[in-house]
Amino acid sequence: MIVLVAAAPAFAQPRVEISGILGWTFSDGVTGEAVLAGDGNLYDEIDVADAVSWGFSIGVLATEGAEVGFMYGRQESRFDVKGTNTVEVGDMAVTTYHGYFAYNFGAAASPVRPYVLGGIGATSYGKVPFTFAGTSRETGGETQFSTTWGAGVKFVPSRGIGVRAGVQWTPTYIKSDAAGWWCDPFWGCYVVGDAQYANQFAFNGGVIFRF
């Protein structure tokens, strides 16, 4: 009975956290070989515009500090083509899906808890509707492998509700460009690739609900 009574506060601690997240995301695109377009300009970069982002996360505290969960994010952005001129092609949604592991520092009952997190998943670039020569068209969407990394602070003065603030970096693999040849006596010679990533840097905050 003494053991059960002593352990009761630990079992009574909230084990699930649901967060609503809102912030601003700085995004970039990738470069490629220059293409001469019909308007006489050279274009060698596709870009994702900075924009407001929102999302949510659902996490389960496996221990007092360790947390595993799922994170969803969405950025209502714009697709641009750049070079000697910049063309705003159209609106594009960027959606992220990541399973994550986080570690929360400090005691579970502490009102202030710094955290770090890392996740793995995918980033989806939505279709972009646009008009060319009086005709409505649409680019194809694309989903690519991505990881996400973040840090921040949670403020939970009560047992059930609190707020959070943090930063998050999400690099998404887009393509690899040939960077030259590499030769060795065992494997022979092969082309070495230079990977390009599109990055999202987010500053966000939100509300936490604990159960």
The amount of helix comes to under 10%
Task: Give Rg in angstroms.
Answer: 22 Å
Which fold does the CATH topology refer to?
Answer: Porin
Shape descriptor:
globular
Straight-line distance between termini:
26 Å
Quaternary structure classification: single chain
Q: Helices and strands, in N-to-C order?
A: HEEEEEEEEEEEE
Let me know the largest β-sheet: 8 strands, antiparallel, barrel
Number of helices: 1
Structural class: mainly beta
Mean pLDDT, all residues? 86
Count the beta strands.
12
Provide the CATH architecture: Beta Barrel
CATH class: Mainly Beta
Residue share in β-strands? over 45%
Low-pLDDT runs: 1-11
Number of domains: 1
Side by side, the strands of the main sheet go: 1-4-5-6-7-10-11-12
Give an overview of the whole structure:
This protein is mainly β and 211 residues long. The chain has one helix at 2-12, and strands at 16-27, 30-36, 42-48, 51-61, 66-83, 86-104, 112-125, 129-132, 135-138, 142-155, 161-184, 188-210.
